[in-house]
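Researcher: Last one for today. Full complex below.
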Amino acid sequence: MLPIIPKLQAKLGADRVLTQPEDLAVYGFDGTAALEAPAACVVFPLSTEEVAEVVALANEHRTPIVTRGSGTGLSGGSIPVEGGIVLCLARMDRILEVDENNLTLLAEAGVITQKISEQADAVGLLYPPDPGSMKISTIGGNVAENSGGLRGLKYGVTRDYVMGLEIVLPDGQIIFLGNKCVKDVAGFSMKDVFIGSEGALGIITKVLLKLVPKPMGKKTLLATFDRMDAAAETVSAIIAAKIIPCTLEFLDRITIRCVEDFAKIGLPLDAEALLLIETDGHPTVIEEEAHRIKNIAELNGATSIRIAADAAESAQLATARRAAFSALARVSPTTILEDATVPRSRLAEMIRFIQSVGERHQLKIGTFGHMGDGNLHPTFLTDERNHEEMARVEKAMKEIFDYAISLGGTITGEHGVGLAKKPFLPAALGEPSVALMRQFKKSIDPHGLLNPGKIFDL
Amino acid sequence: MNPASPAKAHPAQALAPNLRTLDFGVLAQCIHCGLCLPTCPTYDATKLERNSPRDRIALMKQIAEGRSDVTKTFADEMYFCLGCLACQTACPAGVNYAEMFESARADVEHQRILENPKRNAIRFVMLRTIFMNPRLLRALGWGIWIYQASGMQSAVRTLGLTRLLPKNLRELEPLTPGIKAPFSDQRIRTIEPSHEPRRYRVGLLTGCVQDLAYPDINRDTADVLQANGCEVITPRFQSCCGSLHAHNGELGLARELARRAIDSFELDALDAIITNAGGCGGHLKNYAHLLHDDPTYATRAVEWTRKMKDIHEWLAEIGIRPPASSGTIQRVTYHESCHLSHGQKIVTAPRKVLQAIPGLQLIELPEASWCCGSAGIYNITQPEMSRQLLDRKMGHIKGTGVSIVATANPGCLVQLEAGARSHGVELRLVHPVSLLAEAYRGQASN
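Model: Here's the assembly. Have a good evening.
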């Protein structure tokens, strides 16, 4: 047993320091396919002070710490360092304040995103970021990964809603960056460095979030296309018409077929693409926008368009998109979800390229995603036991990332780098950018205690 | 960091014969996304990954791949799981948790890892003796009925004589279901005609606990079927369906009981076989899989599964003849049996049965599909967790302000009756079909 373990037990109590093999196994993975590693122990602090104490001990013993929320990450960011500490914030789960005058919400890092959304909703406000895992993901994890979601096009991502962060630094100091002020230019905007830092710079313990007024209504449309280009042109034309829908989601041919197989909702099996479009705001405005969107889609060659008459029909239309991942995940034993992202003007090219890669490597890749913000989810339907096929998956993935970069895109739009995208980072950013990050990491965490080996090697 | 190693043939397959022969596709279907976590009552209570479905699956997968063995910790975990299958409803990838869970518990029993004299005795008496023998079960039922009906039970309770029982028996005593003799065989004739021109001929399963504690529900089910154009065939001696055995690691006994159940009906002559117990239904529909490699029964088991219908599902399929209004207004809330809603995905049909009753106002119960803690014999094996869940459920029931709670599973009925007693609330616990049967009777007497 590591000498640090009895000390952790003395600080936190034995029941908040797990060391049994069964526990280490289940805290050894997250939502990422085919990655796992056993930690030496898993600890559950209940307060910022306890987090700081654990960090101080880890510093003393030079034991690495991997911070974890609910373990839903999709890039391996919360996979333990073998022999290190997993610091799980799931029990720091209190919402501390909802400030209706300043439209802010203060929460501990372990609060489930859905709870934040519900709490905002209860006072007529909206917390817009809605990552797919929000029913169980924690807000601390969302900030550390700078998570996106379906409403990114109109409302932006997690970063756009973080006003302040309480952080435990690698030396055990507790700091608070930011405040409730809309304007604040005192010094560097340090909180922005920690957003999306994947647990490598500090441990986020509290989050001060911005809320916005809840839109009064929502209109949902579902359009099908027999050509990918027609769908892409529709998206461009909607944006060019100065309409910003809150949701502009798309499914490709393979995904449409899988969804229809699974959910039987009457989707046209010969369609090449399907767009789910939602616009929210004042009822008269969204009514008008919905009709303009319908006209634009028709002009650009949509084969069918439905506008939902009420909330129930909206939900029904949205089923196709919501079921996309479920439907794909049922097809084969191993499902690998990627998130290559390109400027939205290059989407059609990117999607066609993914389809050609699938054909060339004889792989089944279903693609769906956030068409409005260029964030795609090419999803590999494979079998991890088939090593030969997995090698082709690796190749295809690299080609997809390279192509996304060549179009001015990125290797990850909302999942983070973690372990899964680490090999692709230098090509995506250029060596000097990675060197700058490395320099920053070293100055703030000289002993490499926090999430070492993620994003890049030191 | 190691990439997860793929399945290997394990020399010690004999150590975990069920998990290690399970189809890899079933185990690998879990993508460990975590969406099951917030719906799992045990994870919700402890916030420990070990107590969640995706992590139970991860541990099962390790065993299946030969990377670890069935340990005491694993065994305890498998019995801490309620088997409520809420995770299957939440799962985006369609993981068949039920099959993995049954295999895992069977391996725990195979390894005899939890054995101790008391547990062995309870399992021998319950699983191997009483619930394998319908005549013995009914005889026992009569015995308890005499104890309860003669006033002995209330005398014993009033005098506090239960104090004389060992602690764990004393805690269980309030969970003894009220026995309602006479049982189904004396209430329902083997063949009962349709009250309307006959449209269907159906078999009726009377259950085991249901038969002793709620034979009136079986009578009501027959009445409702007759009122909806069904001729009802009810074999006199029916065995336990084996769900208790399958869920408690005795797959061999479960197969034996499945064969007996199939033998007790003339499948070809029936349009459907009807069950009214949510907990049994999920298992009864699984006979095709359970007996898939049984040379004599495989074909009939497929036929059985095809014809097996929950009563609500069947009524929704054939259409409910609406009862005439009796003028009475009743407010009712509905608690979902786990294996009806999560196991069989029957969610709207029971509500439709209730809403078909004139004057019935259905008040939705918050967390209606959250387990009440009954979970087969979980309230006996894990009393503490079971109690927590029951308290949570009773809190929601009290919150509705409704005094009639409908639910379609004998385990839930027993559990909620115990909850009503311990919380000191006057509740009427009733099967949805009984309310429908009453409505038909009301119309007949008008």
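The CA atoms of residues 78 and 203 of chain B lie 35 Å apart. Confidence is low (pLDDT under 50) at residues 1-11 of chain B.
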